[in-house]
Structures are given as structure tokens and as C-alpha cells.
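Design request, C-alpha cells follow.
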């Protein structure tokens, strides 16, 4: 039986493993803080598409969105925040908002959320 010398051995040392686990833990904790915001955005986007499909006027879109937002627990966007424009015989509706997540001290992560039922998927500025 031949023993390998230390120079030919490869692997992850205990201190290297601890460093990797700390980095993964920090990223996972930060991801868990952001995840509810992302889920809320997709719920709001889905509710907007359904509200537009069900409604016949701008007031109907706002009312339908508010009802769906209440059921889905959407707090970042309300019916009054929607941008609604007439597009021929149809209505286009959209919203845009930002969420800030504090990282450390003055450092923050800002996520800009934007959705529209228009052809580009972007909210048009008024």
C-alpha cells in the first residue's frame, strides 16, 4: 500500500468549507428577504392581466384589480396606482413601483418592478 504525499492531495479544507457555507448562508438569507417581493410582483402582474380581461372601462379595471389584490394580499400596488390608457377599442393598463432592501448601513438593493398589458409589456409614462 502506497501512501500519497501531502502535495498530491486535493480537496476542500475545513476553513474553506466554512467560508463557502458563510457565503451561501448570507446569499440564502438575502434571497429569502427578496422572495416575497418577487412573488407579490408576479401576483400583481397576473391580477392586472385578469382585471383587464374582465373589464370594459378604466373604472372597471381599477375595481377588479383592487378586488383581486385584496384576495392575493398585494399591498404594493392599488387600483389608483394603475396607469390606464385607451388603445383603439381596448384598454391597456400597467403599473410601476420600486422596492428597497437594506443590505448594510447606507447600502441598499433597489428592484424596479414594472408590468403592462400593452404589446411591449412596459408601462408608458403619462
Amino acid at each position: 500500500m502506497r501512501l500519497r504525499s501531502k502535495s498530491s492531495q486535493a480537496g476542500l479544507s475545513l476553513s474553506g468549507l466554512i467560508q463557502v457555507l458563510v457565503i451561501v448562508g448570507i446569499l440564502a438569507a438575502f434571497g429569502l428577504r427578496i422572495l416575497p417581493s418577487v412573488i407579490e410582483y408576479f401576483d400583481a402582474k397576473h391580477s392586472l392581466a385578469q382585471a383587464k380581461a374582465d373589464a370594459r372601462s378604466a373604472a372597471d379595471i381599477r375595481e377588479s384589480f383592487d378586488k383581486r389584490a385584496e384576495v392575493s394580499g398585494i399591498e404594493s400596488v392599488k387600483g389608483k396606482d394603475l396607469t390606464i390608457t385607451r388603445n383603439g377599442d381596448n384598454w391597456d393598463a400597467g403599473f410601476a413601483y420600486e422596492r428597497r432592501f437594506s443590505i448594510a448601513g447606507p447600502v441598499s438593493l433597489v428592484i424596479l418592478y414594472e408590468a403592462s398589458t400593452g404589446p411591449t409589456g412596459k408601462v408608458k409614462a403619462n
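Comment from the thread starter after seeing the answer: thanks! Helices lie at 14-54, 58-72.
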